[in-house]
Amino acid sequence: MIETNLAQTVNATNDSGSAYDTNVKYLLADKQILSRILKYTVGEFREMDIGDIIVCIGDDIEIGTRPVDAGLSNLGRVKGTITEDNIPGEGIIYYDIRFTAYLKEKEMKILINIEAQKSTDSGKLGYHLENRIVFYLARMISAQKQTEFFHSDFDNLKKVRSIWICMDSGETEDSIEEIGFDSKTVFGNKRNSYHTDLMKGIIVNIRSGSDSPSGKVIKKSKNVLIAMLEELVSRKNASEKKRILADEYGMTMTTELERRIQIMCNWSESIRERARREGRIEGRIEGRIEGRIEGKTEARIEAVERMIRVNITREQILSMGYTEAEYEKAEGELFANA
Question: For a disulfide at 5, which of 67, 70, 204, 338, Cβ 3.0-4.6 Å?
Fold first, then answer.
């Protein structure tokens, strides 16, 4: 049986030129993963089948990754060539993943951005993540000028959705948050107020793998999307991940998806082995240092003992650079052995 694009991806050998976080982004950019993210985070797709959502992500597929097997032509990853946003006077920002989704029946076009975020700690980031999300949404709106609408035709603005997969939540903090704005009447009774949901940010909080650092197994999330994403970044080996994604989530193991899973698992193991190796080296170094310090301390106390035996005074010993504690310990040991 010919392996599909997703399956061969997981089995491929380690690519030393790739980084772990880069492969996470490639995994998230796979259309099978993207379709599930859209279904569980973007309201317009909530009632749709996964297969129909995949078709909505259709036109910007990288042709080189499209499999030959019949029925698989819509699987693969999103093309990553439009991730730079450069607006004159506003600077450049880079998106992890950006693509367009089309709802043909509703004649709707939605601009999607997905970010893989390791930390949400404002102390580490130097800012609150929510403010960055608002900035990204604003840029996705302003960038539509002269592309999606011209002059003052603001009703042609397309909806934007910025979805953040955050990977540092605690054991009980798996959750999905939504950031947006809407209008409300704060005085009076105005009718037919225009409803807008142009901008929405979604934060998907997943726990750092299916296993906690302490080794305690974290209970499977009740949310389908979070549970699936946690499997992707878990410490399980590639074969187990492939089995779970296929059996429990109905995914087809394409070459690209399998290769990326394999690379990520290899990098995970490499990182853990490096940490173990550095820990062993650090432990040996610390042990040597502690041994040297301990030996040096014992030698100093023995020197004080010898001086006390030949009747050198306390003041003279302390004047040589020895401490009160060293003198008292040496004196105590002499009396104890007397």
Answer: 67
